[in-house]
Amino acid sequence: MHIIDWSIMLLSIALVAGFGIFTRRYMRSVADFMSGGRVAGRYLLTVSKGEMQAGAVVFVAVFEMIGQAGFTITWWQWIQVPAMLVVAISGFVIYRFRETRAMTLAQFFELRYSKSFRVCTGVMGFVAGVLNFGIIPSVGARFFVYFLGLPPELDLGFMALPTYIPLMGFFLSITLLLTISGGLITVMVTDCLEGMLSQLFYIVIIAALLLLFSWDEISTVLASREAGHSMLNPFDASSVKDFNVWYVLMTILLGVYGTMAWQNASSYNAAALTPHESRMSGVLSRWREYGKASVVTLLAVCGLTFLNNADFATQAAPAIHAIDQIADPQVRSQMQIPVALSYLLPLGIKGALCAVFLMGIFGGDSTHLHSWGSIFVQDVLVPLRKRPFGMKQHIRVLRLSITGVAVFAFLFGSLFRQTEYIMMWWQVTTAVFVGGAGAAVIGGLYWKKGTTAGAWSALITGSTLSLSGILLRQILKDDFPLNGIQIGFFTALIAILVYITVSLITCREDYNLDRMLHRGKYAAVKDKVGDADPVPPRRRLNWGRIIGFDGNFTLGDKWIAGGLFGWGIFWAMVCITGSIWNWVAPWPVHVWSSFWHVVGILIPVLMTIVTGIWFTWGGIRDMRRLFVSLRTQTSSEFDDGTVVGHLNLDEAVQEEEAPAAEGINRPANDPAYRQK
Q1: pLDDT tens digits, residue range 417-476?
Q2: Which residue among 56, 205, 212, 549 is buried most deeply as judged by most CB within 10 Å?
C-alpha cells in the first residue's frame, strides 16, 4: 500500500482508539460495564451494533455467498422481508426482554424458569458462542495477509509461522484493551464512531468502483455461468448447492424462532433507554443494512469481473497467480475476491477499504469479547456463588473473563482448520444453542403456560439434535444429506413441538407474566429503580396495530417503520409478480441484467448516500445524549444481574423481598461491600 493508504487507515484507527480511552471515565458500576447504564438511544444502538456486520470476516462470508449465487439469492431473500419487518416493528421478543430488566438472556431464564436452567444455558451459550467466534479473528487476519500482500509465512529459523497468527494476536490485543477499559460504554461509542466513518468511506469506495467498472463488463461475467448456475436469473440457478430458495425459506423460520436467542451482541439487548428505543433501533437497522448492501455487492461483483473478464486479463494476472499460490482450497476460495480487490483498487481507495475492514474487525471482535466474556461471569459464576461479588471485584472478574475469551479465540484460530463456508459454520454452531433455547425464549416471554420442564426438554432436544447433526456431517461429509441451515431448521421445528407438549403436560398454574414484565400493579417498581417506561394503552385493530404500532410510536416513528414495511412489501410483491411472470414468459438474460443494474446496484447506491447522512446525524446526537445521561444518572450497586426469588436484586431490595435464606445481605449503606 502507498503511504496515503496507510495514513487513511492509521488516522481512522487512532481517532477511534483516542475516543475509546476518553469514554473510560464514564464507567462507574456493573450496570455501566454490562449494559452501558441502560441509557442508549436508537441511533447509537443501530450504528454501533451494525458495526458487527462490517468486519472483514462478514465481508468475506458475503463474498463467498455472492461468488456462489450472484444476485439470485437476493431475489429469494425478498420473500422473507415482510416477516422480518413485522418482527422488528412489533419489537417481537426484544421489547418484552427489555421490560424484564435482565442484563443477559440466561438471567431472564432464571427470572422465568430456575437458577439451574440459567447456569446450564449460560454454559451452553458460552461454549457455542466462543466456538462460533473462534474462526472470526483468524479469517479477519488472513484477509489482511492476502489483501495487503504480506508473505503467507514468517521464517523464524527453527520454524515457519503463518503470518496471520501474529497479526491475529495484534488485532485481538487492541480490541481487548478497548473492550476491558470501559465495558459496553466504550464498545458502543467506539463502534458508533467506526460506523459513521465507515459510512463516509462507503460512498467514496462506491464512487471509485463505478468509475473503474462499467455494468456491461460486470454483466458479461455474471452472465457467463453454465445452465443451472446462473448469477442473474434465479430461475436458472437450480444447481446452486447451498445458497438457494430453500436456504431463504428455512432462514425465515429460523430468523423468527431465533430472535435474540443468539447472544453475540447480548449486552445491546439491555442497553436501550426504553423498550421502545430498543425496538426502534431494530427498525432503523433494517434501513441501514439496505444502505450498506451496495458496497458489499459492488466489491464482490467487481472482484469477480476483474478476475474473469478478458478486458482485465493483463492487470489480473498477478492476482490470479497470488490466488493459485494459496495451498488450502477453502482459504483459496475465501480469498479470491479479497486478493482481487487488493490489485484493482486505486490509491487512497484501498486505504479507505482497509480502514473499513479494520474498524469492522475491532467493532465485531469487541462486541463478541464483551458478550461471551460477560455471559460466563453473569450466567455461570454469579448464580453459583454463595456470596455475591463486590462491585469492584465484579468488574475485575468480568475483565478477566473477557481476556480469557480473547486467549481462547487466538488459540482456536491458530489451530482449527475450517472446512465449511463461513455462513454454514455460523449456522451450525448457532443451532447448538438456539435450536433449543429459541422455544424457551419465546414461550417464556409470551406464553403463561410455559414451564421449566418444557424449557429443559426443548433445550436438551434441540442441542442434542444439533450436535448430532454437526458430528454426522463431520464424519460423513458429503454423504450426509443435510447442510448447516437444514440441521438448524429441523431442530427448531422439533424443539417447538417438544416445548409445547411438555409444558401442557406439566403446567399446574399459569405463570404471572405481568410481574416479570413489570406491568399493571407491578409497574411501580420501575419508578423506584429509575427505569420507568409506561406500557401503551391497547388500541382498536387497524393496519398499524397488525404490523406492530402501539401508543409509544410518534408520528416520526410511524413514518420510519411504516415506510420500511411498505418498502419491504413492495419488493416481496416484485418477487411474487416476477416469479409468476417468469413462469409464464421467462425473461431473457439481457432483461435480468438490466433489472439487476437498477435494483441491485443503482437503488442501493442511492440508499447508501441517504442513510449515510441520516445515521451520522443520529449517531452524533445519541452519543452526546449518552454522555449527558451517564454524568447525571445514579447507578445502583445492586443492579448487577443477581436474581432473588425470581426478581432482579435491585427490585427485590426495593420491595424488601430478598430473604436472608438466599444469602443476600447487601444493604446500600454497607461500607464493606462498597470497598470490595
Answers
A1: 655 556 667 766 777 788 888 899 999 999 999 999 999 999 999 888 887 887 787 677
A2: 56
- pTM higher than 0.85, yes or no? no
- The pLDDT value given to residue 154: 85
Alpha helices in 223-312 (DSSP H): 245-257, 275-308
CB neighbours (10 Å) of residue 648? 27
Cα-Cα-Cα-Cα torsion 602, 604, 605, 607, nearest 10 degrees, comes to: 130
Place of cell 487488493: 342
Please indicate whether residue 523 or residue 376 has the higher confidence score (pLDDT): 376
- The closest of 443, 363, 429, 336 to 188, measured between CA atoms, is 363
Do the beta carbons of residue 124 and residue 440 sit within 8 Å? no
| DSSP, res 618 | H
Which residues 6+ apart lie within 8 Å of 374 measured at CB?
33, 34, 103, 104, 266, 267, 398, 401, 402
Tell me 4's DSSP state. H
Cα separation of 277 and 283, whole Å? 10
Q: For 622-648, what is the mean pLDDT? A: 73
What CA–CA distance (Å, rounded) separates 173 from 179?
10
State whether residue 224 is helix, strand or coil. coil
Report residue 95 as a C-alpha cell. Answer: 421489547
| Distance, CA of 641 to CA of 532 (rounded, Å) | 18
- Domain residues of the chain, as ranges? 3-65+115-237+284-419+564-641, 420-510
User: What phi and psi values does residue 25 have, to the nearest 5 degrees?
Assistant: -65, -15
Enumerate helices (H) and strands (E) in the chain, giving the number of each. Answer: 31, 4
Of residues 112 and 364, more confidently modeled: 112
**pLDDT tens track for 233-286:** 888 877 666 555 666 677 777 778 878 888 887 778 778 888 888 888 888 887
Residue reference for cell 416477516: 83
The DSSP call for residue 599 is: I
Query: What does the alpha-carbon distance between residue 503 and residue 193 come to, in Å, rounded to a whole number?
Result: 46
pLDDT computed for residue 105 by the predictor: 86
